Amino acid sequence: MSGSERSLASPLSKMKHVNKDLQRERERCTFDVKELTTIIDGSEERTSKRKERERRMLSRNHEFAGDVPEDYLSNKEVYERGIQKSVVAFSIVRDMQAEGKSSVEDYRDVISSLLQSSTLRDGSAFVLHYMMFMPAILSQGSEEQQAEWMPRAWNCSIIGSYAQTELGHGTFIRGLETTATYDPDSKEFVLNTPTLSSYKWWPGGLGHTANFCLVVAQLYTKGECHGIHTFMVQIRELDTHMPLPGIKVGDIGVKLGLNAVNNGFLGLDNVRIPRNQMLMKHAQVLEDGTYVRSRHSKLNYGAMVFVRVVIVFDSVNYLSKAVTIATRYSAVRRQSQIKESEPEVQILDYLTQQHKIFIGIAASHAQRVTASKLWETFHDITKQLNDGNMDRLSELHALACCLKAISTSDAANYVESCRLACGGHGYMQSSNLPVTYGLVTAACTYEGENTVLLLQTARFLVKTWQSMDTQELTPTVTYMKSAQKNTNKWENTIEGIIDGLEIVAMRNVSACVDSIKKRTASGFCYEEAWNLTSIQLVAAAEAHCRVIIISTFYEEMRKISAKVSESLKPVLMLLVELYAVYWALKKVNDLLRYTRITSSDVVRLQGWYEDLLLRMRPNAVGLVDAFDITDDMLCSTLGSYDGRVYERLMAEALKSPLNAKPVNDSFHKYLKPFMQGKL
Predict the structure, then answer these.
(1) 122 in any annotated domain
(2) Which band of pLDDT confidence, cut at 50, 70 and 90, is reported for residue 49?
(3) Each residue of 623-646: b (16+ CB within 10 Å) or e?
(4) pLDDT > 80? residue 343
(5) Do 351 and 217 lie in a common domain?
(6) What single-letter DSSP state applies at residue 129?
């Protein structure tokens, strides 16, 4: 019996067995599901750690059982229940840290898995404390500042937020209006939000949860502005939690999703903080106001890269939930006939249904593998930075930008496709698909709006192309030189697809550079030429990212396949094939434009794709079972392990407050008088 099956705590689960169709799907699976689960987690040890975290979480789920489901609560009640749940969830992180079971190495995994637990269905107000507040202290704080703040942050004796975005400024950080002016007489910084548009807006937990905040502001000292720096600001009293003098703080209101996150606003009116509360690992302000510049202006990328890696992993978690729900539901739901003489078929047998869902399964593996590789790259380059080697810093930033953008936008599209694949039932909140979409689509704009991030990657690619003949290329762009020389005929193989997409990416970048040159030659300044080329630049950055994801997926899965059982090996490579062929077909216009692919090749490519869907069909349920998402975490009437969709939908409907009485009060107050003409 799997972990998912054991987790069923509802009385419903004791009444009947697993849906017969779903059970047959599991019996026909050709590989060991537990083996794939171990690969997804990274090792048996990490699987064990994950299960231990989940066990602790689920053992306390009874504390949150209420008569009214979350969907029927007010915004205030959602926040308050969210705080209750967050305290329990993150007390587990604190306990495991104290027990030595949570190290810096698995910090990302602990936070990522806890953030996706069912008890935090609509997010957590503690998110930024762990994802931005603490990482920023580690990457930007001096050793003394880390020693002062990190123990308190780990212990949660203080709860922090990270306030960068303003009401009037988001991704354009240089345009932030909040100021921090140094006063050498008192040895203090004076912080102000001089306009309404300079109010901090969006930071998670800032509204009513955090009592400290890292505020990003323009630094002024000796009458000169030195650009943005980060300052530790206490915003609430430790005992009473009342806002401190000069602090105006609150919640920004209801959103599409993440309403338990308590996103807030912050206004500052002559708020004074000690000099040592500017984070000074890279740049300093001396007591007399002298500014000591950082040895490299981009050393603060570390915290942003960490966050973007976590976001990619989070998008994988959301996507894994969505494809699990859609696949299990599609195995249970029977509708229409393929042949008139036969009974209604499982909708998973329809090729169009497989087309909607299976790419999401493959993409969840592709994004997870690529995110893991990004995490390794982040650590390798961080070591180089500590040794004073800045050669790959720009590459790391460009890589994190495009992977965050593509992973989140793809995940949002795949989740929506899964919702549509579940028909009308997918529109029910109880399916958890609308909630999941609200969560994953938010990531397309927070921590860097995706279009802006792709343009940042494009800037790196343009510079790379312009200096290609004079400088050695860094690892993620070395393909550009080989792609320049590639005159091979098209091959319908994974290697052939990768070669073709490399040519597409290289030619896209080349075309952008040519467009910018032509526009500057015709009289536009470089910035105007860049803006007029920006649609092409975004496409070039996306094409580059596709190369990174597909080639990394292929290379890493080949390594993994060499170590797994013979039954699992073809399944893993099937996922790679499906992902590569799907995106080759999606980008067929570019391939026809830039490579030697022919219309006959495209026809064969389409046939290959359809064959892959049919080959994947017998293992579809096994593949999503391998994600090992418990029912408590999945939180879906359509996707539970037992497949009893209709019983669960009805049971959930009966929980609605509207069904508490057979006749609603509105009948006597409004409806009956209206019907009798007595209004």
Answers:
(1) no
(2) confident
(3) bbbbbbbbbbbbbbbbbbbbbbbe
(4) yes
(5) no
(6) I
* Nearest residue to 507 via CA among 485, 476, 474, 528: 485
> What share of the chain has pLDDT > 70, as a percent?
91
Residue 70 is among the residues annotated as catalytic for this protein: no
User: Do 327 and 273 sit in the same domain of this protein?
Assistant: no
Of 530, 324, 318, 500, which is closest to residue 409 (Cα–Cα)?
Answer: 318
How far is residue 410 from each of residues 319, 549, 583, measured CA to CA in Å? 9, 12, 11
The reported pLDDT for the residue numbered 10 is 40
Query: Is 232 within 8 Å of 146 (Cβ atoms)?
Result: no
Query: What residues have CB less than 8 Å from 217, skipping those under 6 apart?
Result: 176, 178, 179, 180, 191, 228, 229, 231
- pLDDT value at residue 119: 61
> In sequence order, what are the beta bridge partners of 225?
220
In DSSP terms, which residues pair with 217 in a beta bridge? 229
Out of 416, 447, 502, 647, pick the active-site residue.
447
494-521 and 569-586 helices, crossing angle to 10°? 30
DSSP letter, residue 307: H
Q: What is the pLDDT of residue 5?
A: 37
Eight-class DSSP state of 433:
H
- 176 lies in the same domain as 283: yes
Q: Considering the domain boundaries, does residue 211 fall inside one? A: yes
Q: What kind and span of H or E run contains 319?
A: helix 301-332
Residues 220 and 349 in one domain: no
The tally of domains found in the chain comes to 2
pLDDT digits 0-9 by tens, 180-208: 999 999 999 999 999 999 999 999 999 99
Does 76 reside within a domain?
A: no
Domain hosting 204: range is: 159-298
Q: Residues 347, 268: one domain?
A: no
Question: Global pTM?
Answer: 0.89
pLDDT of the residue at 107: 62
Residue 48 lies in a domain: yes
448 with 566, same domain?
yes
- Residues 291, 391 within the same domain: no
38 with 8, same domain: the answer is yes
